[in-house]
């Protein structure tokens, strides 16, 4: 019998709990609820107060179902598509709804080619020590890097933690269409012990939170690719910091209203400048357009009459300097079906 992660036990609803809701807050009311949640939250005076709301209660049931499904998928996972491989590392394309560790367990040593594979065949003791250089959320699809020895793992993990890896993500969001085409948002990021990840004011960066953690900084650049089928899909590009509007979060999001919001499907590309947990998901929520299906952060669970089985976030590209050869390398992932469908309808 497959053992479920501890997270599933923590998420399990009490006996007699109501069945999962088919939708969370209406998009037009998300920011109103956000303001209410933050304004009514108790303030200790000693600790900083978050400027984004906690997880909605209804998300626990949804997350439990998704986690159980992902656990079963991960146990039966065969292998991920290999985008690139040499004797030091491999770049693979993770599908949505699968835990990261399943990629390590399913990675075939026989995929290693050339002299390295011959050496493995002669001496099984030289089997590569596989590591994940980066991680993706369970429901996020896209590129991940697997290293094959401790030396390369150490170098590449440091490259990620030093923010020397350029990354782009695609997200399909539902909410108020932004008035800007590109923007940079800077905020704090943290959570109390056993609490939810939240957005904090930039002025709170460095302050302690209950449980001993501290608020850390995070920043993301966004560009809007399309709204309700209007727009144009284009390749990622390098932003000029002087040409992009910047938002520095200091308080809760302003209440926003917009007409016909239920029809506002927004395709954005995110360029994370830091690598905080749930960073893009949190910033999309704060900006007023949560990612479709992201029930933890205010996203709709049902769209166009179909229940979402996960959030629509995809790790599109990675660029970094190879830890051994020193050569710059860039990788692009195949687009998921939801992104292809969205792009195909653009005018």
Tell me what you see in this structure.
This protein has 347 residues and is α+β, with helices and mostly antiparallel strands. The protein contains 8 helices and 15 strands. It has helices spanning 6-11, 30-40, 59-75, 101-106, 114-122, 150-161, 279-287, 337-344; strands at residues 81-85, 89-94, 131-132, 141-147, 166-174, 182-190, 198-200, 216-227, 230-231, 245-248, 265-272, 302-303, 306-307, 313-321, 328-332. Strands 1, 2, 3, 4, 5, 6, 7, 8, 9, 10, 11, 14 and 15 form a 13-stranded mixed beta sheet that branches. Strands 12-13 form a two-stranded antiparallel ribbon. It is globular. The model is unreliable at 1-44 and 110-122 (pLDDT under 50).
């Amino acid at each position: 019998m497959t053992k479920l992660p501890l997270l599933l036990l923590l998420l399990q609803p009490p006996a007699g709990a109501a069945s999962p809701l088919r939708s969370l807050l209406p998009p037009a009311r998300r920011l109103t609820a956000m303001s209410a949640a933050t304004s009514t939250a108790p303030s200790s005076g000693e600790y900083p107060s978050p400027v984004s709301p906690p997880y909605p209660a209804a998300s626990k049931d949804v997350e439990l179902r998704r986690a159980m499904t992902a656990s079963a998928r991960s146990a039966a996972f065969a292998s991920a598509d290999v985008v690139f491989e040499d004797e030091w590392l491999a770049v693979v394309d993770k599908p949505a709804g699968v835990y990261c560790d399943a990629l390590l367990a399913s990675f075939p040593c026989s995929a290693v080619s050339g002299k390295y594979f011959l050496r493995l065949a002669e001496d099984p003791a030289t089997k590569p020590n596989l590591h994940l250089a980066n991680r993706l959320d369970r429901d996020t699809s896209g590129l991940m890097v697997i290293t094959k020895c401790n030396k390369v793992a150490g170098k590449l993990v440091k490259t990620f933690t030093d923010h020397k890896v350029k990354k782009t993500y695609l997200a399909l969001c539902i909410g108020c269409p932004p008035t800007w085409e590109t923007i940079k948002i800077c905020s704090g990021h943290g959570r109390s012990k056993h609490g939810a990840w939240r957005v904090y004011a930039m002025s709170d960066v460095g302050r302690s939170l209950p449980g001993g953690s501290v608020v850390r900084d995070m920043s993301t650049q966004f560009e809007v690719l399309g709204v309700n089928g209007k727009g144009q899909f284009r390749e990622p590009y390098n932003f000029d910091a002087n040409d992009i509007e910047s938002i520095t979060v200091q308080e809760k999001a302003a209440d926003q209203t917009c007409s016909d919001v239920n029809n506002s499907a927004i395709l954005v590309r995110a360029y994370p400048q830091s690598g905080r947990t749930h960073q893009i998901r949190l910033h999309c929520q704060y900006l007023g357009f949560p990612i479709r299906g992201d029930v933890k952060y205010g996203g709709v669970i049902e769209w166009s009459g179909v229940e979402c089985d996960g959030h629509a976030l995809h790790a599109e590209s990675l660029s970094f300097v190879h830890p051994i050869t020193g050569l710059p390398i860039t990788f692009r992932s195949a687009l998921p079906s939801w992104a292809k469908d969205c792009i195909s309808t653009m005018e």
